[in-house]
Design brief:
Helices cover 60% and strands 0% of the residues. The chain is mainly alpha-helical and 105 residues long.
Length: 105
Amino acid sequence: MEARSDAKKKKALVKTAIFGAVSAVLYAAVFTHANFIVHFFAKGGVYAALPVATVFVFSFAHGSFASNLWSALGIEAITKQPAKRPTVAAPRPAQRPRPRVRMSV
C-alpha cells in the first residue's frame, strides 16, 4: 500500500510541475501581450467568445495545478460511502378492487 501511495504522489508531483509551468506561461503570455489581447477581445462579434474561452483555459490549467498540488502534498478529499438501505422489504399496500361501470339495460 505504501509503494502505491508513493507512486501516486510522484505522479501528482510531475503533473503539478507540468500544470504549474503551463499556468505560469499562460499568465506571462497575457501580461506581456496585453495590448494584442485587448485588441482582439474588443473587436466584438465572434471575437466576444475569446474572453470566455480564455477563462476556461486558465481555469482548467490552474485547477489541475491546484488539484495535483494537494494530491502531491497528501491532502485528499474524504470519500463517504453511500448510505446502505435496509434490505427489509416494505409491506405492499393491499390491492383495491378495480372500479367497474355497471350499466343497466
